[in-house]
Structures are given as C-alpha cells and as structure tokens.
C-alpha cells in the first residue's frame, strides 16, 4: 500500500506507452494528473473515493480526468430522476458521495476532479482554471464562472456543474463539462415523473444546457482534456503528461474493488434516498368499469415506511388488501421487490381467477408508481 | 482496580516490609493517573462541546444531512460524526475526541452554524483496552492530530494501542491493510497480518520475556543459569473478538416467503427419488444446440425436462391439480403452466412457462430464454410469476444430488433436479460404460396423491428422457 511504488507503477505503464524518458522526480511534490481508462461510472467514482481516503495530499495536488458511458449520477442527498426511463434505456444509476444535484453523464461529457488538502480547497480557482484552458484553446468562446460555481456559455447556457466533498484532511471538487452529450436524453432522464412528491432533499435547479460542440464543432473531448491538463500543469508547475490509471487494478489501488461494490449496492444507491412521500390518485380499468384508487406512501431510506391504499369498497376482500399493505410496509421501494412480493403472497390467497386478475391489476398499477 | 492495588500492596507488605514505602508511593501515583482512565460508565467524565469547525470558503451555515452516531454511542477520535451540506459541497465532520456522545444539537435537515456546538461529548478513555495495556505508560489522548503518522508519505490511522502492538511485533503499519472506519488499522488487522506472516493464529502477546517463578530453594544457585536459559514464553491471553450480532426486521419479499413457506408446511409432503440416465439426451442436445442457435435460442436441458413433465401430466393429471383451503375440492388444472425456479438477487422466484401442453420443445426453450433474461434484469412481470400449476427446480446447476423440495402452494407437486454426473453403470450386456446420471427428487401432497401415482409419473418422465425418441410418439 505504499503510494510511491504505486505511482511508480503508473508512470512505468505510462512510460511504455508514451515517452521512455519520464523521470520520477516530478512526482514527489507539486501535482499529478491522472486519467481513467475505464468508462464505468462506479469504478471511476470508486477511484475518487480511493484517492480521498488513501492519498496524502500534504504537498501534492491531483487532477483526475474521467468519462462515463451513459449514467445518471445523483448527489448524496438527492432523490429525483426518471427511473423508468433509465431502466428502459439501460442507463446506469449511481449515487456519488459529494453533494449537489443530479447530472447525466455520457461519453460526450468530461469529468474533472481536483484533489487537495482540506485547507487548500478552493472551487473558484479550479473553475477559473478550466475557463482559462477553454479560452486558451478557443479564444472566441464566451465562457465565465458564476457565483453558483457554474460555468456558463454565452452568459446563459450551463456547460458545467460542480459538487464537492470535504473530509477530515482532504477535499475534492469535481465538475462536469459538456462537450458533446446527448441533450435530449439528458433533459428527459433528469425530470422526475412524480406529481405530488414532497421531500427535504436538496432541490434540483433546472437549467438550460448547451454543448461546447454546438458552439464550435471542431472541439472534441480529447482536446478539452488535454487543454485542461496543460493549464493545470502550467499552474502547478508540474509535468504535463497524463498518467493512465486502471480502476480495477488492485495492485495500484488496493481495496478499490470493494469501493466499487459499495457504490453499486442497493443500500447506497437507493437506500440513501432522503425521506419522501407520495400521494397520488389513478384510474384502473377493469372489465367494464373504471376504478378510482388513491395511494399514499412515505418512503425513507428507499423503504416504504407507511402505506395506504384506498380502493372502492369490496373490490378486493378487505382482509387481503390489508395483508398486502402490511407486506408492503418495510419493503424496498422497488418494482422488482414489489412484483416478487405480490406474486408470492398470491400463493396463500384464495385461488379464484377473478381475484387473481384484480390483485395483479392493482399490483401492476402500484409498480407503475416506482 | 484501585482496591486491587491496595490489596497487593498489603500482601507484599507481609513478605518484604522494607519495600512498602516504595509501593505505597507508586500506588498513589498509579491511582491518580488511573482515575483519568477508568472505564466504568458510572463515572462522570468531562463534557466537552464539540463545535462545528470552519468549512472554508467563508461559509457560516450548513445543513445537517446525516448523523452517523446517536446519543449514547461511543466514538473514537477521527470517527465520522455527521455529514453536512453547504451549497453543493458535502462535508464529513469527524470527532476530535474519544468519548461518549451525550447530546446532538441539531436534527436532520436543521441549519447548523460554524463555531456553534454540534455535539456534546463526554471525554473518557477509549473503552475495551485489554488488560495488557499498561495504563501508566499511555499518555492521555491529546486533541491534536499528531497521533497519525506519516510513513513513507502515506497516512495511516491507528490508535496508540494498535501502534504499540505493531511496534512490539516489528510490523510496519504501512504494510497492514486497515479495515476500520476510514481504513483505520484495528487490532484485528494487526493480528491477521501476524497470522499471515507465521501461518498460525497467534495469541496477541508482545514479545515479553517472562521468567517462570522458581521455587524458593533454587533461587540463589539457579540465578546465573536462568539468565542463560531465558526462554520467552508467550503468555496466552484471550483473543478479543469484537464482532456483534446484527438483527434486522424481515420485510418485503422475505416476509411474503415466510407466509408461503409456512403455508407449505401444512401440506403433508412425501418424497420420491430416482436416478435418470441422460446419456442419450446429452447426445441429442449436442446435435440440436447449433440448430437452436441458428434460430437465436439457447438450448439447455430444461426444455426437455419441462416437455417430458407435461407429457407425464397428461397421463397423471392429479399432479397438476390444486386442493382448496378446506380440502373439500380438487381442481384439475387444464393448462400445464410449469414453473422454473430461478435464483435472483431477490432470492427464489418462480416464473412459469404457460401452456406447455401445446408448446414444442423449441418454443419452451425460447420462452425460457425470455424469462431468464427478464429474471436477471429484474424485470419479470406479475403475469410471468403467477398462475403456475407445477414446478421444476434445477438446483443441480449449483450442485447437489438428492434434495427435499418444498411444494409451492397452491400446487401439489414439485421436482428438483440434481447435477449431471458421469458415473460408471452396467449396460444390458453387463459391461461397464460411462453414463450421464442425474438424480431427481419429487415431493407431492400426500392428501390427494399417493406413492404409486408419483412413482408411475416419475417412471414415465424418466423413460421419455432416457429414450428421447419415445417422446416423438406422444408429442402433440
């Protein structure tokens, strides 16, 4: 777990790929620029955690560059996004450990994480560095940093979002930069489909976004990454070459795979959802009639704490309806879980087809809520 | 502990009175320092208000988002206390002291102010110090961060007790993987490291040189000999295991399973097992696999087992029936909706293939593919999971030979298939040959199904599978 040797590994790998003359002196103080070879959002978030937990940043600053295949990343204390759409489009859902809102990542979006000691945590400086790099690359770009730590293009379009995590001795500030992301998917997945949802979660501030590519089609993600790395190297007076890092390599990053698993666990992604309540009415069509159903639920830590279903009288035997409600209480707020639960419960209910079809209809509608 | 010292003092007094004064003084010194380190809960330590320290960037207020501790919990220095959020930054606040949390000044989602008290901590010595800790030598916990060392530029977190243990065993903390909070190195980690080094579980003793007490008669002449023959004897101390039981409520899907299985218990099960020679079927499947592949379907053995079961059910429809709650009526189900037990993240779920009686083996295979991919994506719908009339469980893919499957109400029978093994068997000529043998274990509801019926069904199913060509005769 000695970091010097792991840095050496990085550079050895790197030196095979690029320049054979990379010296090690440049790594002992000042800074380090690393880029992930993986596009897996969980692995990359795990690298952030790893650096935050294990690296000594007393005399060193680190810039971590990464990109993800399509994923929605929610802030630590956030809870809104369109889950059904995510599942349909096979977009991964991850929760990061820093605060802030929900963002959509794909390969047209680059992520930058600035690691420093807690004392040297300074978001404005980092964002100004990014703006400087952009201007050096394309002087005609109208980009600037706002008070809310956003980067705006043409004074109105958000091209970067920011979030940060402060630990006891280290801190990191990460931000995104929209180069050529799928804006259509972005706006649709970030919308919450729930009407009647109340919670204390960090509210998401909607913004109009634009890709840098829209402004200047000659720009690519690689160009942006290189420009920012160049500027960082200049400002910190360090070697401008980027070391490649493999987020699955336990020898370089011992314990990293455990961190990746933690980030993928249901308990972290869904279980950390701040408390919210749903209060909704919907119509069910059964044979020739339309039924009005009212559902109220309180969900805490991803589990249903309180559940209330109001059905037209005697449509389902009340004893069985309350059995369903009792089983739902304490269950995970997850369509998978509810489907398995409801179908299993059905085995111990009276076996008549009419009842079964009513039960299934109700359960399907409940699941649609999730 | 103080009392103990006094007693030992007094006993020593009887033997060597001239040393009394020395012991008296030292005992006084010990007890004074010990008072600071008493571990009983009754004692009142000093209550310190831990204030929310500066977050940086001129921030004065934050929102409390998560508490990691509650009142009454004990904390160590550097343990995480809470998570606060300010303007897109999530900050972990860690404890500066060892002690017990006595008061939380904020609730979740309250605004907390920098410089104002966050929690009250009762300062106390860290609990759970094993007896070998020499209390006198350990300095009182200071509030600075000097206790974390930097070894080769790498930060390691460990309490002084753990550091001593490492030092005494000549272990470099940088080589130990910490498993505590924030990757802190715990005593267990040192012990594990030691165990790996020596290949054995060692008692957690320092390399103390302890001379066993000698009988008095040998004291004088044996003294120089003692020094030559000093053998370090490890003192065996109890290994401290700090794991705790964890209780969680049974909820959701598991609760539903409890209900179902409890209902299943009411069914009087009887079992019937047999062994099937799948040699011919294995060969047949090898031939058919590429054909199915061309049509985009993965062909396993299950479609054959399922179809053979359906053919059997046509002859013995009582196995595809359902008994009502009062055991008054038996309903013979027309459709053969054969369930296939699937192991998913949730646990055991049983989607079923509908109307197997009118499906071809290929259609069953393709339906199974669909159910399997939905199952692994966690997207099975209610229709796929309800309406089953008979179940097959292929536990053999995981392992096992004979099992005792539990009938899933409202069904009356279930079959569990073990793994396929290559075993020596005798053929008709009396020669030994390599046979592909699989075991099947049936369970049936003895209230309406008798052993003979089950046996005949099983024999028929077996004959279809042992001689797949015979299935052709009865396929509809």
From TrEMBL, chain A:
Enzyme Commission no: 2.3.1.200
Keyword Mitochondrion: yes
Keyword set, alphabetical order: Acyltransferase, Mitochondrion, Transferase, Transit peptide
Keyword hit for Acyltransferase: yes
GO biological process assignments: protein lipoylation
Main location (coarse class): mitochondrion
Annotated localization: Mitochondrion
Reaction it catalyzes: (R)-lipoyl-5'-AMP + L-lysyl-[lipoyl-carrier protein] = N(6)-[(R)-lipoyl]-L-lysyl-[lipoyl-carrier protein] + AMP + 2 H(+); N(6)-[(R)-lipoyl]-L-lysyl-[glycine-cleavage complex H protein] + L-lysyl-[lipoyl-carrier protein] = L-lysyl-[glycine-cleavage complex H protein] + N(6)-[(R)-lipoyl]-L-lysyl-[lipoyl-carrier protein]
Pathway it works in: Protein modification; protein lipoylation via exogenous pathway; protein N(6)-(lipoyl)lysine from lipoate: step 2/2
GO MF term (any one): lipoyltransferase activity
Residue ranges of every copy of the BPL/LPL catalytic domain listed in the record: 57-240
GO cellular component: mitochondrion
Function: Lipoyl amidotransferase that catalyzes the transfer of lipoyl moieties from lipoyl-protein H of the glycine cleavage system (lipoyl-GCSH) to E2 subunits of the pyruvate dehydrogenase complex (PDCE2). Unable to catalyze the transfer of octanoyl from octanoyl-GCSH to PDCE2. In vitro, it is also able to catalyze the transfer of the lipoyl group from lipoyl-AMP to the specific lysine residue of lipoyl domains of lipoate-dependent enzymes but this reaction may not be physiologically relevant.
Family: Belongs to the LplA family.
PANTHER family, A to Z: LIPOATE-PROTEIN LIGASE, LIPOYLTRANSFERASE 1, MITOCHONDRIAL
Protein name per its UniProtKB record: Lipoyl amidotransferase LIPT1, mitochondrial
Natural source organism: Cariama cristata (Red-legged seriema)
Automatic annotation (TrEMBL), chain B:
Gene Ontology MF terms: acetyltransferase activity; dihydrolipoamide branched chain acyltransferase activity; lipoic acid binding
Domain Peripheral subunit-binding (PSBD): 157-194
Pfam families found in the cross-reference section: 2-oxoacid_dh, Biotin_lipoyl, E3_binding
Main location: mitochondrion
Enzyme class, spelled out: transferase
Domain Lipoyl-binding: start-end pairs: 47-122
Cofactor(s) named in the record: (R)-lipoate
Compartments, record wording: Mitochondrion matrix
Chain's role: The branched-chain alpha-keto dehydrogenase complex catalyzes the overall conversion of alpha-keto acids to acyl-CoA and CO(2). It contains multiple copies of three enzymatic components: branched-chain alpha-keto acid decarboxylase (E1), lipoamide acyltransferase (E2) and lipoamide dehydrogenase (E3). Within this complex, the catalytic function of this enzyme is to accept, and to transfer to coenzyme A, acyl groups that are generated by the branched-chain alpha-keto acid decarboxylase component.
Name by which UniProt lists this protein: Dihydrolipoamide acetyltransferase component of pyruvate dehydrogenase complex
Upper classification of the organism: Eukaryota, Metazoa, Chordata, Craniata, Vertebrata
């Amino acid at each position: 777990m000695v970091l010097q040797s792991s840095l050496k590994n990085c550079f050895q790998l790197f030196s095979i790929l690029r320049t054979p003359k990379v010296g090690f002196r440049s790594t002992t103080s000042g800074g380090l620029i690393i880029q992930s070879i993986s596009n897996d959002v969980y692995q990359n978030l795990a690298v952030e955690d790893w650096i935050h937990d294990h690296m000594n940043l007393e005399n060193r600053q680190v810039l971590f560059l990464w990109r993800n295949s399509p994923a929605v990343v929610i802030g630590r204390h956030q809870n809104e996004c369109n889950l059904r759409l995510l599942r349909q489009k096979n977009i991964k859902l991850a929760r990061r450990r820093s605060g802030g809102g929900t963002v959509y990542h794909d390969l047209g979006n680059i992520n930058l994480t600035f690691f420093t000691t807690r004392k040297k945590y300074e978001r404005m400086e980092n964002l100004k560095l990014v703006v400087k790099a952009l201007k050096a690359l394309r002087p005609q770009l109208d980009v600037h940093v706002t008070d809310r730590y956003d980067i705006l293009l043409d004074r109105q379009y958000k091209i970067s979002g920011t979030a940060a995590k402060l630990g006891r001795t280290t801190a990191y500030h990460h931000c995104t930069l929209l180069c050529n992301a799928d804006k259509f998917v972005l706006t649709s997945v970030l919308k919450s489909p729930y009407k009647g949802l109340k919670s204390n979660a960090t509210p998401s501030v909607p913004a109009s976004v634009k890709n840098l590519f829209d402004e200047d089609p000659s720009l690519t993600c690689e160009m942006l990454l290189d420009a920012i790395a160049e500027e960082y190297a200049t400002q910190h007076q360090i070697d401008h070459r980027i070391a490649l890092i493999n987020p699955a390599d336990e020898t370089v990053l011992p314990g990293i795979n455990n961190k990746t698993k933690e980030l993928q666990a249901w308990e972290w992604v869904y279980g950390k959802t701040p408390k919210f309540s749903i209060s909704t009415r919907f119509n069910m069509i059964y044979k020739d009639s339309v039924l009005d159903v009212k559902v109220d639920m309180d969900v805490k830590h991803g589990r249903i704490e309180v559940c209330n279903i109001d059905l037209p009288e005697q449509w389902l035997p009340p004893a069985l309806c309350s059995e369903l409600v009792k089983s739902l209480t304490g269950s995970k707020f997850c369509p998978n879980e509810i489907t398995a639960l409801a179908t299993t419960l059905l085995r111990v209910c009276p076996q008549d087809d009419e009842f079964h079809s009513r039960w299934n209809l109700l359960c399907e509608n409940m699941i649609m809520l999730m | 502990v103080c009392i103990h010292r006094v007693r030992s003092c007094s006993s020593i007094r009887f033997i060597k009175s001239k040393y009394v004064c020395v012991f008296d003084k030292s005992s006084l010194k010990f007890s004074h320092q010990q008072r600071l380190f008493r571990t009983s809960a009754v004692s009142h330590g000093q209550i310190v208000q831990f204030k929310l320290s500066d977050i940086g960037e001129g921030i004065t207020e934050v929102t409390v988002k998560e508490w990691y501790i509650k009142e009454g919990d004990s904390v160590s220095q550097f343990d995480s206390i809470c998570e606060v959020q300010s303007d897109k930054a999530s900050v972990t606040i860690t404890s500066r002291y060892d002690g017990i949390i006595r008061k939380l000044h904020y609730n979740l989602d309250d605004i907390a102010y920098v410089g104002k008290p966050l929690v009250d901590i009762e300062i106390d010595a860290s609990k759970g110090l094993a007896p070998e800790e020499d209390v006198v030598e350990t300095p009182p916990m200071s509030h600075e961060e000097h206790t974390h060392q930097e070894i080769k530029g790498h930060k390691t977190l460990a309490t002084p007790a753990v550091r001593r243990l490492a030092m005494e065993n000549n272990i470099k903390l940088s080589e130990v993987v910490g498993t505590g909070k924030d990757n802190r190195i715990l005593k267990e980690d040192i012990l594990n490291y030691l165990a790996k080094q020596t290949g054995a579980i060692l008692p957690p003793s320092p390399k103390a040189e302890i001379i066993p007490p000698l009988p008095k008669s040998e004291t004088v002449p044996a003294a120089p000999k003692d020094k030559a023959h000093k053998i370090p004897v490890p003192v065996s101390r109890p290994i401290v295991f700090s794991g705790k039981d964890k209780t969680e409520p049974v909820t959701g899907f598991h609760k539903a399973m409890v209900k179902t299985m409890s209902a299943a218990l009411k069914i009087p099960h009887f079992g019937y097992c047999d062994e099937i020679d799948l040699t011919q079927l294995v060969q047949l499947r090898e031939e058919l696999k590429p054909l199915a592949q061309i049509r985009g379907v993965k062909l396993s053995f299950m479609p054959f087992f399922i179809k053979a079961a359906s053919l059997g059910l046509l002859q013995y429809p009582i196995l595809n029936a359902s008994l009502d709650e009062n055991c008054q009526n038996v309903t013979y189900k027309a459709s053969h909706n054969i369930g296939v037990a699937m192991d998913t993240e949730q646990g055991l779920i049983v989607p079923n293939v509908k109307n197997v009686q009118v499906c071809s083996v290929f259609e069953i295979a393709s339906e199974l593919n669909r159910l399997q991919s939905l199952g692994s994506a966690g997207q099975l719908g209610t229709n796929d999971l309800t309406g089953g009339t008979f179940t097959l469980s292929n536990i053999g893919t995981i392992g096992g030979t004979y099992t005792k499957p539990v009938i899933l109400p409202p069904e009356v029978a279930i079959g569990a298939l073990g793994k396929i093994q290559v075993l020596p068997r005798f053929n008709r000529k009396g020669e030994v040959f390599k046979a592909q043998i699989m075991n099947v274990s049936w369970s049936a509801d003895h209230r309406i199904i008798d052993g003979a019926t089950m046996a005949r069904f099983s024999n028929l199913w077996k004959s279809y599978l042992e001689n797949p060509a015979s299935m052709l005769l009865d396929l509809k």
